[in-house]
Write a structure and sequence with these properties.
By secondary structure, the chain is α/β, with parallel strands linked by helices. It has a single domain, classed as TIM Barrel (Alpha-Beta Barrel), CATH 3.20.20. It is about 40% helix and about 15% strand. It is built from ten helices and eight strands. An eight-stranded parallel sheet has the order 1-2-3-4-5-6-7-8. The chain is globular.
Protein backbone atom coordinates (compact mmCIF):
# COMPACT_ATOMS: atom_id res chain seq x y z
CA UNK A 1 0.00 0.00 0.00
CA UNK A 2 1.67 3.22 -1.21
CA UNK A 3 0.65 6.10 1.08
CA UNK A 4 1.78 9.57 -0.01
CA UNK A 5 2.43 12.53 2.28
CA UNK A 6 1.97 15.48 -0.08
CA UNK A 7 3.37 18.27 2.08
CA UNK A 8 6.71 18.38 3.92
CA UNK A 9 9.84 20.53 4.07
CA UNK A 10 13.56 19.89 4.51
CA UNK A 11 16.25 22.44 5.36
CA UNK A 12 19.30 23.10 7.53
CA UNK A 13 21.23 26.12 8.83
CA UNK A 14 23.69 27.71 6.43
CA UNK A 15 21.54 27.54 3.29
CA UNK A 16 20.92 30.66 1.21
CA UNK A 17 17.94 32.47 2.68
CA UNK A 18 15.41 34.61 0.85
CA UNK A 19 16.04 38.32 1.24
CA UNK A 20 12.42 38.80 2.32
CA UNK A 21 11.17 36.16 4.76
CA UNK A 22 8.85 35.88 7.73
CA UNK A 23 11.11 33.54 9.72
CA UNK A 24 13.96 31.03 9.37
CA UNK A 25 14.33 27.91 11.57
CA UNK A 26 17.66 27.41 13.35
CA UNK A 27 17.67 23.60 13.21
CA UNK A 28 18.16 20.91 10.58
CA UNK A 29 15.66 18.46 9.11
CA UNK A 30 17.38 16.50 6.36
CA UNK A 31 15.92 14.23 3.71
CA UNK A 32 17.17 11.26 5.74
CA UNK A 33 15.31 12.58 8.79
CA UNK A 34 12.15 12.88 6.73
CA UNK A 35 12.35 9.42 5.21
CA UNK A 36 12.96 7.98 8.68
CA UNK A 37 9.76 9.68 9.87
CA UNK A 38 7.86 8.25 6.91
CA UNK A 39 9.17 4.76 7.66
CA UNK A 40 8.15 4.94 11.30
CA UNK A 41 4.61 5.99 10.39
CA UNK A 42 3.91 3.60 7.53
CA UNK A 43 4.14 6.19 4.75
CA UNK A 44 5.77 5.22 1.46
CA UNK A 45 6.39 8.45 -0.42
CA UNK A 46 6.57 12.17 0.17
CA UNK A 47 6.35 15.50 -1.64
CA UNK A 48 8.93 18.10 -0.68
CA UNK A 49 7.64 21.67 -0.78
CA UNK A 50 10.22 24.42 -1.13
CA UNK A 51 10.00 26.45 2.12
CA UNK A 52 9.33 30.15 1.77
CA UNK A 53 12.45 31.20 3.66
CA UNK A 54 14.71 29.57 1.04
CA UNK A 55 13.13 31.57 -1.76
CA UNK A 56 13.92 30.49 -5.31
CA UNK A 57 17.11 28.57 -4.50
CA UNK A 58 15.74 25.05 -4.84
CA UNK A 59 19.16 23.36 -4.79
CA UNK A 60 18.79 21.60 -1.44
CA UNK A 61 15.43 20.09 -2.35
CA UNK A 62 16.59 19.06 -5.82
CA UNK A 63 19.60 17.19 -4.43
CA UNK A 64 17.21 15.23 -2.20
CA UNK A 65 15.03 14.35 -5.18
CA UNK A 66 18.06 13.06 -7.07
CA UNK A 67 18.94 10.75 -4.18
CA UNK A 68 15.48 9.21 -3.82
CA UNK A 69 13.68 9.32 -7.18
CA UNK A 70 11.24 6.53 -6.32
CA UNK A 71 10.09 7.97 -2.99
CA UNK A 72 10.09 11.73 -3.49
CA UNK A 73 8.67 14.45 -5.69
CA UNK A 74 9.10 18.21 -5.36
CA UNK A 75 7.28 21.52 -5.71
CA UNK A 76 9.63 24.45 -6.36
CA UNK A 77 9.50 28.20 -5.86
CA UNK A 78 10.60 30.08 -8.97
CA UNK A 79 10.91 33.58 -10.29
CA UNK A 80 8.38 34.17 -13.08
CA UNK A 81 11.24 35.05 -15.44
CA UNK A 82 12.78 31.57 -15.19
CA UNK A 83 13.43 30.01 -18.59
CA UNK A 84 11.93 26.81 -19.93
CA UNK A 85 15.23 24.92 -19.98
CA UNK A 86 15.70 25.41 -16.22
CA UNK A 87 12.19 24.12 -15.61
CA UNK A 88 12.82 21.10 -17.83
CA UNK A 89 15.96 20.30 -15.81
CA UNK A 90 13.91 20.30 -12.63
CA UNK A 91 11.18 18.25 -14.27
CA UNK A 92 13.73 15.54 -15.08
CA UNK A 93 14.58 14.99 -11.41
CA UNK A 94 11.02 14.91 -10.06
CA UNK A 95 9.80 18.49 -9.65
CA UNK A 96 6.13 18.51 -10.65
CA UNK A 97 4.99 22.04 -9.89
CA UNK A 98 5.63 25.49 -8.50
CA UNK A 99 4.36 27.07 -5.34
CA UNK A 100 2.91 30.50 -4.74
CA UNK A 101 3.23 31.13 -1.02
CA UNK A 102 1.40 34.42 -0.74
CA UNK A 103 1.05 34.56 3.03
CA UNK A 104 1.38 38.17 4.09
CA UNK A 105 2.29 39.30 0.57
CA UNK A 106 0.59 41.41 -2.04
CA UNK A 107 -1.13 39.44 -4.75
CA UNK A 108 1.08 39.04 -7.83
CA UNK A 109 0.00 40.59 -11.13
CA UNK A 110 -0.66 37.23 -12.76
CA UNK A 111 -1.96 38.75 -15.99
CA UNK A 112 1.37 40.39 -16.84
CA UNK A 113 3.52 38.96 -19.67
CA UNK A 114 6.23 37.36 -17.52
CA UNK A 115 3.66 35.37 -15.57
CA UNK A 116 1.80 34.37 -18.71
CA UNK A 117 5.07 33.15 -20.23
CA UNK A 118 5.74 31.08 -17.11
CA UNK A 119 2.24 29.64 -17.27
CA UNK A 120 2.92 28.57 -20.85
CA UNK A 121 5.97 26.62 -19.67
CA UNK A 122 3.95 25.03 -16.87
CA UNK A 123 1.20 23.92 -19.26
CA UNK A 124 3.79 22.36 -21.55
CA UNK A 125 5.30 20.41 -18.66
CA UNK A 126 1.87 19.60 -17.20
CA UNK A 127 2.93 21.05 -13.85
CA UNK A 128 0.63 22.13 -11.06
CA UNK A 129 0.56 25.48 -9.25
CA UNK A 130 0.28 25.14 -5.49
CA UNK A 131 -1.24 28.08 -3.63
CA UNK A 132 -0.98 29.11 0.01
CA UNK A 133 -3.18 32.11 0.71
CA UNK A 134 -5.76 33.07 3.30
CA UNK A 135 -9.23 32.23 2.04
CA UNK A 136 -10.22 35.84 1.36
CA UNK A 137 -7.62 36.08 -1.41
CA UNK A 138 -8.31 32.77 -3.13
CA UNK A 139 -10.61 34.09 -5.90
CA UNK A 140 -7.92 36.55 -7.00
CA UNK A 141 -5.40 33.72 -7.44
CA UNK A 142 -7.41 30.69 -8.48
CA UNK A 143 -9.40 32.42 -11.22
CA UNK A 144 -6.32 33.68 -13.16
CA UNK A 145 -4.64 30.28 -12.85
CA UNK A 146 -7.70 28.45 -14.14
CA UNK A 147 -8.07 30.98 -16.95
CA UNK A 148 -4.46 30.15 -17.88
CA UNK A 149 -5.39 26.48 -18.21
CA UNK A 150 -3.43 25.31 -15.19
CA UNK A 151 -3.95 22.65 -12.52
CA UNK A 152 -4.24 24.27 -9.08
CA UNK A 153 -3.52 22.74 -5.67
CA UNK A 154 -4.72 24.61 -2.57
CA UNK A 155 -2.80 24.18 0.68
CA UNK A 156 -4.22 23.71 4.16
CA UNK A 157 -7.91 23.40 3.21
CA UNK A 158 -7.88 26.91 1.79
CA UNK A 159 -6.97 28.59 5.09
CA UNK A 160 -10.59 29.37 6.13
CA UNK A 161 -11.23 31.81 8.95
CA UNK A 162 -12.83 30.94 12.27
CA UNK A 163 -16.14 31.00 10.39
CA UNK A 164 -15.23 27.65 8.86
CA UNK A 165 -17.81 26.50 6.29
CA UNK A 166 -19.48 29.92 6.42
CA UNK A 167 -16.29 31.69 5.38
CA UNK A 168 -16.88 33.36 1.96
CA UNK A 169 -13.45 32.38 0.69
CA UNK A 170 -14.06 28.77 1.61
CA UNK A 171 -17.44 28.84 -0.14
CA UNK A 172 -15.69 30.15 -3.25
CA UNK A 173 -13.19 27.29 -2.99
CA UNK A 174 -16.04 24.78 -2.96
CA UNK A 175 -17.48 26.37 -6.11
CA UNK A 176 -14.11 26.12 -7.85
CA UNK A 177 -14.48 22.33 -7.74
CA UNK A 178 -16.70 22.61 -10.83
CA UNK A 179 -13.59 23.31 -12.91
CA UNK A 180 -12.25 19.84 -12.10
CA UNK A 181 -8.76 21.36 -12.18
CA UNK A 182 -8.54 22.32 -8.51
CA UNK A 183 -7.22 19.98 -5.80
CA UNK A 184 -7.21 20.66 -2.04
CA UNK A 185 -4.89 19.41 0.68
CA UNK A 186 -6.31 18.32 4.00
CA UNK A 187 -3.28 19.59 5.88
CA UNK A 188 -2.16 22.18 8.39
CA UNK A 189 -5.37 21.96 10.42
CA UNK A 190 -3.55 23.39 13.43
CA UNK A 191 -2.66 26.49 11.42
CA UNK A 192 -6.33 27.17 10.73
CA UNK A 193 -7.76 26.22 14.13
CA UNK A 194 -5.14 26.34 16.93
CA UNK A 195 -7.41 24.67 19.51
CA UNK A 196 -6.27 21.09 18.93
CA UNK A 197 -8.95 19.71 21.24
CA UNK A 198 -11.74 20.87 18.90
CA UNK A 199 -11.77 19.44 15.38
CA UNK A 200 -15.42 20.27 14.75
CA UNK A 201 -14.78 23.03 12.21
CA UNK A 202 -12.09 20.99 10.45
CA UNK A 203 -14.49 18.05 10.21
CA UNK A 204 -17.28 20.25 8.87
CA UNK A 205 -14.96 21.70 6.23
CA UNK A 206 -13.76 18.21 5.27
CA UNK A 207 -17.35 17.05 4.75
CA UNK A 208 -17.98 19.99 2.41
CA UNK A 209 -14.72 19.38 0.54
CA UNK A 210 -15.54 15.71 0.05
CA UNK A 211 -18.98 16.59 -1.23
CA UNK A 212 -17.67 19.21 -3.67
CA UNK A 213 -14.42 17.67 -4.89
CA UNK A 214 -14.84 13.98 -4.18
CA UNK A 215 -11.93 12.08 -2.65
CA UNK A 216 -10.22 11.85 -6.06
CA UNK A 217 -9.22 15.53 -5.89
CA UNK A 218 -8.32 15.73 -2.22
CA UNK A 219 -4.88 15.08 -0.74
CA UNK A 220 -3.32 14.61 2.67
CA UNK A 221 -0.16 16.31 3.89
CA UNK A 222 1.60 16.21 7.26
CA UNK A 223 3.16 19.69 6.97
CA UNK A 224 6.23 18.15 8.66
CA UNK A 225 8.27 19.40 10.52
CA UNK A 226 5.41 21.71 11.54
CA UNK A 227 7.49 24.89 11.47
CA UNK A 228 6.68 27.35 14.26
CA UNK A 229 4.50 24.63 15.83
CA UNK A 230 7.16 22.02 16.56
CA UNK A 231 6.43 21.87 20.29
CA UNK A 232 2.72 21.14 19.88
CA UNK A 233 2.44 18.93 16.80
CA UNK A 234 3.69 15.41 16.10
CA UNK A 235 3.52 13.50 12.83
CA UNK A 236 1.13 10.91 14.22
CA UNK A 237 -1.23 13.70 15.29
CA UNK A 238 -1.61 14.85 11.70
CA UNK A 239 -2.50 11.30 10.67
CA UNK A 240 -5.05 11.04 13.45
CA UNK A 241 -6.58 14.40 12.54
CA UNK A 242 -6.91 13.29 8.93
CA UNK A 243 -8.63 10.06 9.94
CA UNK A 244 -11.03 12.03 12.13
CA UNK A 245 -11.89 14.30 9.20
CA UNK A 246 -12.22 11.44 6.70
CA UNK A 247 -13.72 8.48 8.59
CA UNK A 248 -14.56 6.35 5.55
CA UNK A 249 -11.72 3.89 4.71
CA UNK A 250 -12.60 3.89 1.01
CA UNK A 251 -12.30 7.69 0.82
CA UNK A 252 -9.05 7.59 2.77
CA UNK A 253 -7.53 5.09 0.34
CA UNK A 254 -8.26 7.36 -2.61
CA UNK A 255 -6.91 10.45 -0.83
CA UNK A 256 -3.79 8.76 0.55
CA UNK A 257 -2.89 6.59 -2.44
CA UNK A 258 -4.74 6.90 -5.72
CA UNK A 259 -5.12 10.68 -6.02
CA UNK A 260 -1.55 11.68 -5.08
CA UNK A 261 0.02 8.86 -7.12
CA UNK A 262 -1.63 10.32 -10.21
CA UNK A 263 -1.16 14.03 -9.49
CA UNK A 264 2.46 13.78 -8.32
CA UNK A 265 3.46 11.14 -10.87
CA UNK A 266 4.52 8.42 -8.47
CA UNK A 267 3.25 5.97 -11.07
CA UNK A 268 5.90 7.23 -13.51
CA UNK A 269 9.62 6.49 -13.47
CA UNK A 270 12.04 9.38 -13.03
Amino acid sequence: MQIVDTHAHIFEPGLNLAAVRRYAPDYAVTVHDYLSVLDRHGVSCGVLIQPSFLGTDNTYMIEALKQFPRRLRGVAVVDPTIDGVALETMDAVGVVGVRLNLTGLSLPRLWEPEWQTLFGHLRRLDWQVEVLRDSVGLPFVIDPLLNAGLTVVIDHMGRPTEAGVDDPGFRYLLQSARSRRVWVKISGLYRNWPDLSDLSRAKDCAVRLLDAFGPERLLWGSDWPHTQNEKNIRYAMTQQQFEACVPDPADRKIILQDAPARLFRFNQAI
